[in-house]
Write the structure tokens for this entry.
Amino acid sequence: MQWKQVDWKADAVRLDAGTTKNRDARVVYMTGALRRILEAQHSAHLRLAKAGQIQPHVFFRMVAHERGGEKHPRPIGSFKRAWRLACREAGVPGKKLHDLRRTAVRDLDRAGVSRTVAMKMVGHRTESIYNRYNITSDGDLRAAARKLDVAAEVQQPSAQRTARQQ
């Protein structure tokens, strides 16, 4: 991803056709967390530019041409390797990229985002694929039980009032 794809005014990142999993172009609107990550990367970009090292890529790594030599920015060549190193550094070795897709789908669903909007955001073309990612957890089942308890408490007093009125 390059800086020309980041639209700060629109709070959006424009992903080009052919670069996403389903090969469709997509606009990703920034959350606060994404904006903070991009701002941090942009600060690094500006520091490099001041030093005369122009880097069009949002994510890069600093690499020396020779051991102990001066480091220069280089775009990430192997996403798999970069992912593995980032996961290890974050303390979640073995995490898969699709784990994040599942988390995104679950979070969108739990936040009440409509299915059509969520599918557009994550790039799923069919509900069957979306449903494959929207996994029900033990926590979901517990939350459903709590909701039933709350609903029963709300209905109980009105049922008792109706019984007294008769």
Q: What stands out?
A: Helices lie at 32-50, 79-89, 97-110, 115-122, 127-133, 138-165.
